[in-house]
Design goal:
Blueprint lengths: L5 H14 E3 L4 E3 L7 E2 L5 E5 L5 E5 L10 E2 L1
Parallel strand pairs: 3-6
Antiparallel strand pairs: 1-2, 4-5
Length: 71
Amino acid sequence: VPSLTDEQFSIMCAKISANSFGTAEHLALYYQCSLFNHSCAPNACQYHEESLEAKIYLIEPVRKGDEICIS
């Protein structure tokens, strides 16, 4: 395992923090979920099952070409 500089470690932690999803008991990285953009008025939400499987549900109607965003 290669060692990280303090700067590399800080960057890695920031990326994990920005792209992870948490539940009351777990923090997880979901590659596909991390590709969704954030919105303060999202049209979708993420749900994490007890199996730690993440699902995305639309909460607003979308049209072809609309961006799907989560909060």
